[in-house]
Amino acid sequence: MSKAQKFTDDSFENEVLNADEPVLVDFWAEWCGPCKQIGPVVDELAGEYEGKAKIGKVDVDSNQIATEYGVRSIPTLLIFKDGEVVDQIVGAVPKTQLKKQLDAQLTN
């Protein structure tokens, strides 16, 4: 089974901003309860969207990139397309909602 990629400050530009496909980025932390709820869902999506979208996670405790995007509460999931944030999801939401928002970017 595929797992979400780990994005870091060093890899973010290359992996996310320069990606050819839409990218879902989960900003999370080890100590965050709702982050642990949504983590397995994000990993499932990584498998389901393989070849269509890139799915990854950024640990906000060890990377500064979250502050550049105004992430103040976690989990925050941002969807990037062509290097721009095109959608945002805050909080642990159902998988169906994540899929709906990600699918919307695949069809645009």
User: How far is the N terminus from the C terminus?
Assistant: 28 Å
Percent of residues in beta strands? 25-35%
User: What's the CATH topology label?
Assistant: Glutaredoxin
CATH class: Alpha Beta
**Total of helices:** 4
How many distinct folded domains? 1
Overall CATH architecture: 3-Layer(aba) Sandwich
Structural class by sheet pairing and helices:
alpha/beta
Written as H for each helix and E for each strand, in order along the chain, the element string is: EHEHEHEEH
CATH H-tier superfamily: Glutaredoxin
| Biggest β-sheet strands, sense, barrel | 5 strands, mixed
Mean pLDDT: 95
Work out the radius of gyration: 12 Å
Apparent shape: globular
DSSP helix fraction: 25-40%
Low-confidence stretches: none
For the biggest β-sheet, the strand order reads 1-3-2-4-5
Detailed description of the structure:
- Helices cover 36% and strands 25% of the residues.
- With 108 residues, it is of the alpha/beta class.
- The protein has one domain: Glutaredoxin, CATH 3.40.30.
- Strands 1-3-2-4-5 form a five-stranded mixed beta sheet, with helices on one face.
- β2, α2 and β3 form a beta-alpha-beta unit.
- The longest helix is centred in the middle third of the chain and has 16 residues.
- It is globular and about 35 Å long.
- The chain starts with a strand and ends with a helix.
